[in-house]
């Protein structure tokens, strides 16, 4: 294009740049296509919608609207923010997994609206004359206020709605099945309000290579000026300077970028296809090498790492230690005697403890710690209480 600057064929300038950009664009394009397919799979997932005549019909997740009553099944994703109307549990209780929403691995208890939980059939639920008034969408996943109005004959009763009556989108039903009334969909759900726009992630190695490339560019400019100075500043010296810069531009390893992009794609594919970590999906091929830089992993609680799987090891009552070798009858007698002599909050609860321990005799020692954990406990520093402290074997995943 500029004969004075040409030091070779034009293709020698354009082809490396096109090749590098093509590899980068191809890798980013593959990531976008995978994200699109995941979104489409979620939006096309089928759910059961309650019709006006009490029948259920399949509906895609993308077609769910506010006011629809959706039937939810165990281990299925909840497609929208809902108010829990009815569960298969007689008490109207159900558990959900919220790890994809708030990172917590423990199950959360939810309760159905009392007015609708008592309805014995789906047909009667459709015939209800009721409405729900709720607050506008907001990002706080731990706060919710609403009112449930239901007309029963000539009178209208009102029930308050709280967080325990809700099911947020992207959570998973842990047990049983339920019916939920959709209150927020799409961008108004808690999950979407708290999500951020996708951004291009950059790993530490990319910053390091960019810094080294910048330093090589400075070296290139210094060498070009040195050569120009040694050759003398003659007429059209700036043309010579540009020719020197073009000649020395091969100092910057453009092909290194291509090698890195191909290596990252290969790493991501290996992670997704590794049989030792089956089910793992590399959702981003930009920063897989960052996993090799992880040196420490911090957790706010052990359940995040141990999956709340604990094995009973020992039990301390005051200064006495009991383990699997001790008879459960003996431990039972010690606990009852401690509660009888203790004036603290646990005093007077002997019948409850007797009942729990009677059931506990049929339990394995591994489950005994859960029985003790549900009994009232007072810290030793408070001056009251027995100080019952169950311990778990860290080698078995407990803490």
User: Using DSSP, what is the number of strands?
Assistant: 15
Structural class: alpha+beta
* Average residue-wise pLDDT: 77
Strand order of the largest sheet: 2-1-3-12-4-10
The percent range for helix content is 25-40%
Round the Cα radius of gyration to an integer and report it.
Answer: 33 Å
Cα end-to-end separation: 71 Å
Which homologous superfamily in CATH is the superfamily of the largest domain?
A: Calcium-transporting ATPase, cytoplasmic transduction domain A
Number of helices: 12
What's the number of structural domains? 3
What's the level 1 CATH class of the largest domain?
A: Mainly Beta
Q: Could you list the spans in which at least 5 consecutive residues all have pLDDT below 50?
A: 359-399
- Strand fraction equals 15-25%
